[in-house]
Amino acid sequence: MIETKFIDELLNKSIKKYDLNDLKELANEIREFQIQSISKTGGHIGANLGVIELTISLHYVFDIEKDKLLFDVGHQGYTHKLLTGRKDLFSTLNTIDGMSRFISPKESPYDILDASHGGTAISIGTGIAYANKKDNIDSKTIAIVGDGAFVEGMSFEGLNYSTSQNLPLIIVINDNGMSIPKNVGAVNMILSTKQNASNFFNSMGFEYFYIDNGHNLDEAIQIFQQAKNSPNKKTIIVHVKTTKGYGLEISKNHPYRLHFSMPFNPSDSTTTAPAPTGNSYTQIVGDTLYNLIKNDKNIYVITPSTPYASGLDKLIIDFPDNAIDVGMAEQQAAGMAAGLSMSNKIVFLCYQSTFMQRAMDQIFHDICFMNLPVTIIASRSGFAGFDSPTHHAIYDLSYLRGLPNLEIFYAGTSKDLKNMIELRKKTAKKPMIILHPYEAIRADEEKYFSEDSLNNNETLFTGKDGYILSVGNRLSSAIELREKLKTFNKDVGIINNRWIQPLQVINTIELLQKVNFAITLEENVLDGGFGSAISELIIDNDINTKLIRIAIKNGYTSTGDKDYLSKLEKIDVDSIIKQLKTRGIL
Predict the structure, then answer these.
(1) For 321-359, what is each residue's pLDDT tens digit?
(2) Of the candidates 551, 548, 480, which has an alpha carbon nearest to the alpha carbon of residue 519?
(3) Which parts of 88-185 are beta strand (E)?
């Protein structure tokens, strides 16, 4: 049993009544509690161990009843959660309706910013601080920016504006030299020394403070008090040096300092993993690109700070000139991809789909508008597990369909994924996005799927009564649904709809005209998605086939595993059967 005397006392005692020795004991308790708890549940262990003393200092110096703490990104918030009375929630991390991995206002009034994408806190903080200044409200806004979020374009836009107004805003830079992997680029060099950083921020008009050891409570508290009580009216930077994974021995040699881990043995690094293990679609991406680059150094792969999520770890190590991590800078990744492509390079741009949203203008304006043959590979399309509701990529089909010149290919199988990447290397003439889910490859691939030409959608089964037109991440449901419909004496076929854009118009029309009904399956919102594309096709061609669109009707959904979320959003097989009965199909 973990001793949590000082954590428990906070329920009835203000942290401001602790002396320095008490605060150090509190930090030790929190560190041990996090290691023991997160080793059982999994979670963002490395990022949180690095900000324990930093967070204690902020709570000690500032008044969280009136001052606003904005954590950017929110996976640095575990200590903040403990200091605001949420110890009992930790055992529910990574469970249905459990504690959020991130800061969430739904959990606590002390969670101001629902932060799961990086780079937002400074800009949002300028708005809060500006309002406080205009309303003469005595409140400090503190934006805690770390894990690489400081290099985001939005962060720099916020920096640029914040000094022009002398806002009651304190920007805390948690400088651990890491985003998910190591930080890259000039900003990392600026932050490498106090002198460099001081020159930079002072020249921009900030008042600059520096904490050399963010794990030294004495020093951190002293500097934060100076910043809080500064007589100057300037916007303030507090630059804090910390160590990601601080206090956990196995993190020292981990490539991401255990940024995130599934449940692990704290004494044995071999049992930890920064991402889901096993034979996955991301592994197919990584292996395929690796083999291509090995034989052709005119190929370039770009990722914005998530190489593990795209299977690129080995490429970045073995081909550092061709596999490029640009840091947490999604727009830079797209712009650089455009420039490489304009220079006659073969370019693969790898995102997690949820973060790709941040580069929409660059994808539209710099890649699609110029019709450049960049291949975007977006992992984690559809449900994204327990990270945050904002991590679900259940909007990508809707917003991508409107982009000019962009081909949208959804890999239904590992063969689809591998073969299309290889084909793009040889034949790319215009932009394409290849989407795939963030999960293990289905065991039924060999049983159901063939080697049909990638130029067409794949017919898994033919049907006399109807067809299920499915996007790749719902094919398992399509197969299960077909079997269920047999019990209702319905002979239903299945199409693996690889091509979202352009639609396979002629083949799909011919297919629909032969049957009484069609069902579209997708892990996307209903508005503007794949089902909408088929609906438009039916209307535009005066087809009488009844269409049932199965998709997510709400704008946002909860966190959870695929089965839970499918039932929650009524896109599971049992819910589909009920809808078919309501629609008169059964």
Answers:
(1) 999 999 989 999 999 999 999 999 999 999 999 999 999
(2) 548
(3) 141-146, 169-175
C-alpha to C-alpha distance for 479 and 303, rounded to whole angstroms: 34
Within 13 A of 192's CA, how many CA atoms are on the CB side? 9
Whole-number Cα distances in Å, 227 to 165, 208, 238, 268, 507: 18, 9, 8, 41, 67
Report how far residue 300's alpha carbon sits from residue 284's, in angstroms, rounded to the nearest whole number: 17
Q: How far is it, in rounded angstroms, from Cα 423 to Cα 431?
A: 13
Q: How far is CA 20 from CA 5, 30, 53, in A?
A: 16, 15, 12
Using CA atoms, how far apart are residues 252 and 248, in angstroms rounded to an integer? 8
What pLDDT was estimated at residue 271?
52
The DSSP 8-state label assigned to residue 238 in this structure reads E
Nearest partner of 4 among 41, 44, 31, 43, judged by Cα: 31
- The average pLDDT across 372-385 equals 95
Are β-strands 207-211 and 169-175 bridged in parallel, bridged antiparallel, or unpaired?
unpaired
Provide the b/e sequence for 363-395 (b: ≥16 CB within 10 Å): bbebbbeeebbbbbbbbbbbbbbbbbbbbbbbb
Q: Give the pLDDT of residue 446.
A: 79
Locus of tokens 């973990």: 2
Please state, rounded to an integer, the average pLDDT across all residues of the chain: 92
Instruction: Kindly state the tokens that stand for 586.
Output: 């059964």
Q: Are strands 499-501 and 407-410 parallel, antiparallel or unpaired?
A: antiparallel
Q: Residue 530 is encoded by which pair of tokens?
A: 């794949």
CA dist 568 and 551 (Å) reads 12
pLDDT at 399 over 50: yes
68-72/141-146 β-pairing? parallel
What pLDDT, on the 0 to 100 scale, is given for residue 61? 98
Average pLDDT over every residue of 365-383: 97
Position 382 pLDDT exceeds 80: yes
Residue 101: predicted pLDDT: 87
Q: Is 166 left (phi over 0), alpha (psi -120 to 50) or beta?
A: left
| Per-residue pLDDT at 410 exceeds 60 | yes
Determine whether 73 is exposed, middle or buried from the number of CB atoms within 10 Å of its CB (0-12, 13-18, 19+): buried
Q: Given this model, what pLDDT does residue 147 score?
A: 62
Q: What are phi and psi of 521, to 5 degrees?
A: -120, 130
Question: Hey, which bits of 194-304 come out as E strands?
Answer: 207-211, 236-241, 299-303
Mean pLDDT across the stretch 9-30? 95
**What's 350-419 look like in SS3?**
EEEHHHHHHHHHHHHHHHHCCCCCCEEEEECEECCCCCCHHHCECCHHHHHCCCCCCEEEECCCHHHHHH
List beta partners, residue 141: 68, 169
Nearest to 78 by CA among 51, 118, 117, 41: 51
State the number of CA atoms in the 13 A half-sphere of 117 facing the CB.
22
Peptide bond into 73 cis (omega under 30): yes
